[in-house]
Inverse folding.
């Protein structure tokens, strides 16, 4: 699943780089650059995170990346909570023995 996440992240980044060729979208698809207070006059001013915003608006690779990220986060959270639960039960097992 991590390989699918990495591949879809690279694909979304590549697809989002199309924003460089669409200057009329710079005003509407660059929230991170605008949040930093940068006035976009050239494609070099665009933040790399805005590539993902553009990909989310106009391509398919971003949803795949998002689904993989949610799955990986849920799996790590499950394993972490399972580990904590076993740690909490360990002293009880020692006391009962």
């Amino acid at each position: 699943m991590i390989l699918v996440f990495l591949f879809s992240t690279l694909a979304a980044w590549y697809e989002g780089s199309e924003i460089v060729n669409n200057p009329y979208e710079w005003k509407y698809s660059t929230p991170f650059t605008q949040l930093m207070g940068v006035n976009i006059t050239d494609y070099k001013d665009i933040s790399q995170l805005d590539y993902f915003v553009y990909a989310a608006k106009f391509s398919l690779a971003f949803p795949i990346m998002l689904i993989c990220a949610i799955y990986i986060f849920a799996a790590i959270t499950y394993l972490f909570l399972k580990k904590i639960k076993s740690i909490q039960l360990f002293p009880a097992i020692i006391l009962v023995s």
The helical segments are 2-16, 31-35, 48-58, 61-96. The CA atoms of residues 21 and 43 lie 8 Å apart.
